[in-house]
Write a structure and sequence with these properties.
Elements: E1 15-16, H1 35-52, E2 58-65, E3 68-79, E4 82-85, E5 92-93, H2 99-111, H3 141-144, H4 168-174, H5 192-206, H6 210-222, E6 243-245, E7 256-258, H7 273-276, E8 279-280, H8 282-293, H9 307-313, E9 318-322, E10 336-339, E11 344-348, E12 351-360, E13 363-370, E14 375-381, H10 386-401, H11 408-436, E15 449-453, E16 457-463, E17 477-481, E18 488-495, E19 498-501, E20 511-518, E21 521-529, E22 545-547
Antiparallel strand pairs: 1-3, 2-3, 2-14, 3-4, 5-8, 6-7, 9-10, 10-11, 11-12, 12-13, 13-14, 15-16, 15-22, 16-17, 17-18, 18-19, 19-20, 20-21, 21-22
Helix pairs in contact: 1-10, 2-5, 2-6, 10-11
């Protein structure tokens, strides 16, 4: 997520402590005598981090070492203004942490000879097609889960973000129209859409939907009885509820607010579950961390997947970034960060660091594996305090690794203040440009009509009573994304042929709409997010609208 947040010193979080929970029946390995001290140090750090970001409603953490869950604990409350604490069983949406589970499902099928990493996708999905037809027979299963096909960042996410009414089949039918902006296998661009396709490979090869396969072949054998593959089954009574800041002046600024009274109300990726469907808690996720560190082997010696498949899932497939390495101000900076299959693999303070994050509206989460220390941890949160989760990720890693001397909490607060200042300045500039903007060249009704994008579908601009508008330049135009009910609201002049929305649902990011004229008539339009902080999944910029 692209996060620019202001911390407010208002809320004192209530901690709900729970004892460390051992993993299933048979011990995975010996528990060292100093594990209690390690758990206590992590616990104290989490409490310090929450005190530094007092608007954060809840955090939950799992810490695993040598096959044992040393800490599974919830901190804070499930909802602002509600005294009920979270505990180690409280559900959180963990979004893209799901991707590693999808890759494990593929690994199981590969072990069974039903799938191959480097076999073309069309072997399993004959109707698979892309907007570059020359790639149709070249894209492999490994490509799907490596973010290296060439799609732009977040391409196609508007098919399911924000909550859409599309089915999985409709998403698959749209894939061939989503633009590919880069060369095949040359650069890393994070792409949820291809993980949806990967889930359909699982379904085709196994004969059951993705969610049923991961339930029966992964969750059930691991004893993860409290984990839900799809968030639609999440009970609000046992869930941490989503929180965020809705402005002013921009999204991710202003007071912390409850975004919804349930997880699926803001996060329904049931049609895109393989990319981000999971809801879980630290008790269950500790089991997942342990089986990852044990390379697919259960305590009784049986395997979910082979060691060979485990090694493949951690093998880098594409470079994400590279640098000159750590500095005193950036001690965790990697020389090389890569993406494997469902995991990011990098160096961190001289050791192998395997990780993945997840971001949903009102939730940020992360999982970290340190194979050299046979340790791992996770952190789940129910708000969008990005610098808090940065501090948790690096701060807990440093504790596990025995590194000291860098204050990740203070550094996060410093960066947050700098980012907030930039965001506030950007918001002022956006408003100033609108106030000084030229009027549109045509009467407003000339821009009304049905506008169609090849992969998204229809966006309708029509006239509504002027009273619905509260913007600085009133208009009777109203814009509605036909497959995304939350993306609708007034459309007002901004500068010349560029207009901007004022979506009624303030949880969503507004857009600029720029029209292209031919013979005095609008015939094409493009879009981009108004805010520079907009989450990349608002991929408005990939829309190519033509008038119907």
């Amino acid at each position: 997520m692209s996060i620019r947040l202001t911390r407010r010193a208002a809320l004192a979080s209530t901690a709900a402590a729970a004892a460390g929970v051992a993993l299933p029946a048979v011990a995975w390995a010996r528990q060292p005598a100093d594990d209690a001290a390690l758990a206590a140090e992590v616990d104290a750090f989490v409490r310090r981090a929450m005190a530094a970001w007092p608007d954060q409603p809840a955090v939950s953490v799992a810490l695993v070492k040598d096959g044992q869950a040393l800490l599974t604990r919830g901190y804070g409350v499930r909802k602002l203004g509600d005294p009920r604490p979270v505990d180690e069983h409280t559900h959180f949406a963990i979004a893209s942490n799901t991707k590693a589970v999808t890759c494990a499902a593929l690994a199981i099928l590969i072990d069974e000879g039903k799938v191959k990493w480097d076999e073309p996708v069309r072997t399993y999905l004959p109707e698979f097609r892309l907007s570059k037809p020359e790639l149709n027979d070249l894209v492999t299963v490994r490509d799907l889960v490596s973010h290296r096909i060439g799609f732009g960042l977040g391409a196609g996410d508007l098919l399911f973000w924000p909550n859409s009414d599309r089915t999985r089949a409709e998403i698959m039918a749209a894939v061939e129209h989503v633009p590919i902006e880069d060369q095949f296998r040359t650069s890393y661009h994070y792409c949820n859409l291809m993980f949806v396709v990967a889930g359909e490979v699982v379904a085709a090869a196994s004969g059951m939907p993705w969610e049923d396969f991961v339930q029966t072949r992964i969750l059930d054998p691991l004893g993860m009885s409290e984990t839900l593959p799809l968030m639609t089954a999440a009970d609000p009574a046992s869930s941490a509820l989503p929180h965020g800041r809705l402005g002013p002046p921009l999204r991710y600024q202003g007071e912390m607010q409850v975004l919804a009274e349930s997880i699926p109300a803001v996060w329904d990726w049931s049609a895109a579950g393989a990319a981000g469907g999971f809801v879980t808690n630290p008790v269950d996720w500790a089991r997942w961390i342990a089986v990852q560190l044990n390379k697919g082997q259960l305590p009784d010696g049986t395997r979910l997947w082979s060691e060979a498949r485990a090694n493949e899932m951690w093998r880098p497939n594409i470079i994400v970034s590279n640098s000159g390495g750590p500095t005193p101000d950036m001690p965790g900076r990697s020389i090389a960060a890569t993406y494997a299959t469902g995991w990011q693999v990098m160096d961190y303070r001289g050791e192998r660091f395997i990780t993945h994050g997840g971001g949903a509206p009102g939730f940020i989460s992360g999982t970290v594996l340190l194979p050299g220390r046979n340790a791992g941890f996770s952190y789940f949160t129910n708000a969008e305090e990005g610098m808090l989760t940065r501090a948790l990720r690096s701060g807990i890693a440093d504790i596990v690794m025995g590194k000291a001397g860098f204050d990740w909490i203070a550094d996060g607060q410093r960066l947050e203040a700098e980012n907030n200042a930039k965001s506030i300045a950007a918001a002022a500039e956006i408003d100033a440009k609108q106030a000084a903007g030229a009027p549109p060249s045509l009467p407003l009704e000339a821009y009304a009509g049905v506008w169609r994008d090849p992969w998204y579908g229809d966006i309708v601009i029509d006239s509504r009573p002027r009273s619905v508008n509260g913007g600085p330049r009133q208009s009777n135009l109203y814009l509605a994304f036909t497959r995304t009910l939350s993306l609708q609201g007034p459309l007002e002049p901004y500068d010349g042929e560029t207009f901007r929305t004022r979506f009624l649902d303030k949880r969503e990011e507004d857009v600029f709409v720029s029209f292209e004229l031919e013979n005095g008539r609008p015939v094409r339009a493009t879009m981009k997010a108004v805010s520079p902080d907009a989450d990349f999944s608002y991929d408005f910029h990939d829309l190519r609208l033509t008038r119907v």
